[in-house]
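Example record

One chain of 97 residues, shown exactly as stored in the release files.
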Amino acid sequence: TRAVAEGDGYRIRGCKTWIGNAGIADHICLLAHTGGPGALGFSLFVVDGDAAGLTQVGGLALSAPRAFGTIELNDCAVQAGALVGAPGLGLAYALET
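Predicted structure tokens for this chain:
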């Protein structure tokens, strides 16, 4: 999944699987490649669950106590405020939690 800076925000394209609570969450946290080498190439975003360009593809059948699913992001535009912290530090933020 890639996020490209555009205007005052980002445009996100790609697919994500094993998203916890997909289909029922108001917001989805996701890592997207924004450029840079290795782990410094990923940024963390919070995207509205009903954002234009975000499609809930379907759930995954498991015996887990919560829903998991797949989402597609097709030119999903997000404002700069959707970026969590500094660009390129998304993987570090995700691993801290």
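Notes: The first strand starts at residue 2 and ends at 6.
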